[in-house]
Fold this protein.
Amino acid sequence: MVEDEAMNHKPYHESMHAMLDGAIAPVDRRALEAHLATCASCQASWDSLSSVHRLLKAAPLAAPRPGFSRRFEARLAQRRSRPRAIWGALALGLGAVAVSALVVPLGLGAVLATVRVAEQPDTALALVFSLSAAAAFLTTLADALVLIMRALVEAILPNPLAWAAAVLALGLTGVWFYVMRKVAAEVNS
Amino acid sequence: MSEQDSVWRARAGDEAAFTELVEAYQTPIYNLCYRMLGEAGEAEEAAQETFLRAYSQLGSYDSGRSFKTWLFSIANHHCIDRLRKRRLTWLSIDDDNLPPHPALQEQEPGPEDSLVRRQQTEMLQGLLGRLPPEDRSVIVMRYWYDLSYEEIAEATRTTVSAVKSRLHRARGSMGQMLAPAPAPRPAAGGPLRVGG
């Protein structure tokens, strides 16, 4: 019963909104006026809706504080400098990593070579003697250096870890160059 | 210099041209943010962010569409995102105690009028604050900017029927909030008038 009544009034509610939006047909307007004259419930709804409408219509436009566009320009400049700082830090970090990655395999090879040399007492002794009397044992020293170089090569070539480190270093160096180009482009823009 | 000229120059990297657009739209965008968020400081943040986003997305702006509607769309979605985050972090504002906006106070002529208008502003913000964000944005675009249903649908990325439905629902809810328990009264039967 109540639902039926609500359904009967629904078209008038639609007309009320159309009226407020200035989109009501004259025939619907006359029908609404006639209905409101006899329906207290719809009249109350109309009063309520038109109060809201008047309140909204009377509301002024809120304005920002003076200097809005200057604050915008400052924010835009700040927003632009942020990527540069990030790229710069990234470039430095990656550069450091790339250099470390280059140094690590060399250091590793040197340690392994030293161990190999230490395992050969004659050469080690020769090395010690050649160091203490460099002028007298130049030839032995040269032999020892050749031996060291050979040991270094032998240690690095079959070692997959050293290869992986070298490839990683190469990759990181490539990334570093790419980042530096981006930074240069940012600075020049 | 037309708006489209400024847009084209801004798209070509002319910052001064974009500043012209900021100056032209700062008040409408700020007002939209203020009506959506209900707080002056947050409205400033949201309006600034709207222009920053617009600047970075200028390349995707379709010049066949209204620039104003495009800006409103960015502002509206940013405000709705802020409101959702606010709800998630339990930082909702107390709708009954919204601070009156300083710019509104400055426009007021006398102390009595000032008091009335301040009360109206607070009441209005209180009512808006109780609406779902999607309904609130439709009300703001309809009443403060007189946008058509189609323009609101474009700015809110929805359909015209959804806009009408939200507008009707929002107005009805605000009416109920204004008069929570309307007492039945005899029909007035007077002429049908709007406004005043």
Chain B touches chain A through 56 residues (CB under 8 Å). Residues 36 and 174 of chain B are 15 Å apart (CA to CA).
